[in-house]
UniProtKB/TrEMBL annotation:
Catalysed reaction, written as an equation: N-terminal L-seryl-L-prolyl-L-lysyl-[protein] + 3 S-adenosyl-L-methionine = N-terminal N,N,N-trimethyl-L-seryl-L-prolyl-L-lysyl-[protein] + 3 S-adenosyl-L-homocysteine + 3 H(+); N-terminal L-alanyl-L-prolyl-L-lysyl-[protein] + 3 S-adenosyl-L-methionine = N-terminal N,N,N-trimethyl-L-alanyl-L-prolyl-L-lysyl-[protein] + 3 S-adenosyl-L-homocysteine + 3 H(+); N-terminal L-prolyl-L-prolyl-L-lysyl-[protein] + 2 S-adenosyl-L-methionine = N-terminal N,N-dimethyl-L-prolyl-L-prolyl-L-lysyl-[protein] + 2 S-adenosyl-L-homocysteine + 2 H(+)
Pfam families: Methyltransf_PK (PF05891)
Signal peptide bounds: none
Keywords recorded for this protein, A-Z: Methyltransferase, Nucleus, S-adenosyl-L-methionine, Transferase
InterPro entries named in the record: MeTrfase_NTM1, SAM-dependent_MTases_sf
Compartment(s) where it occurs, according to its Swiss-Prot or TrEMBL record: Nucleus
An annotated Gene Ontology molecular function: N-terminal protein N-methyltransferase activity
GO biological process: methylation
EC number: 2.1.1.244
Enzyme class: transferase
Organism annotation: Poecilia formosa (Amazon molly)
Protein name: protein N-terminal methyltransferase
Chain positions recorded as S-adenosyl-L-methionine binding sites: G80, R85, D102, V103, T104, L130, Q131, Q146
Gene3D superfamilies in alphabetical order: Vaccinia Virus protein VP39
Taxon lineage: Eukaryota, Metazoa, Chordata, Craniata, Vertebrata
Amino acid sequence: VVSTSLLVSVDRMGDVAEDKSSFYSNAEDYWREVPPTVDGMLGGYGSISSIDISGSKAFLRKFLGDGEGKTGKGRALDCGAGIGRISKRLLLPLFRTVDLVDVTQEFLDKARTFLGDDAKRVGNYYCCGLQEFIPEPDRYDIIWIQWVIGHLTDDHLVAFLRRCQKALRPAGLIVIKDNVSYEGVVPDDVDSSVCRDLDIVRRLVGRAGLRVVHEEQQLNFPKEIYQVHTLALR
């Protein structure tokens, strides 16, 4: 989730691509051991949750409402949802229905109670890695992808974004919010992920046939973690 790796930046995606199965299985093993709590979802940085949600809400509200190019408020998809922290505080207050997808069944089981009364507005809980997940076409107004793209290889990220584009309703929006490295690709062997720089993320977005329509840096996060940027894609 929140990458605190301070390793020297190197381009390692080539190595990862050669051993996809262990890249994914090691990540699944890591998350299986993480407690199903907000602090667990945020790598021990539970204290930043409110700042994160406030920033995301301000970002998202620029696109919601009536009028040309505005996004509907029908259904959202929370990718890498964990226990539903983002669904509970960001998506369910703004959308009628939310679907959750995560690779760890224990987190999705916890989400059913963590979401409280709002759980009745959850459409589906999908237990699946994003590299294999196929969202239903023409279903979502917002697809929210936060702190999870580092768990996908370049090719799988591009393919997933293409599937997400097909899953959008008219005027729908894909949002990526994630850590970005200062240069290149930085591997994190602890949770079996990578952190890419912004230029690489933008290039992969372009390969998926999408364009960045708005971009912001999340402010007021601890200085020791990588910068976090939010990108709206169409």
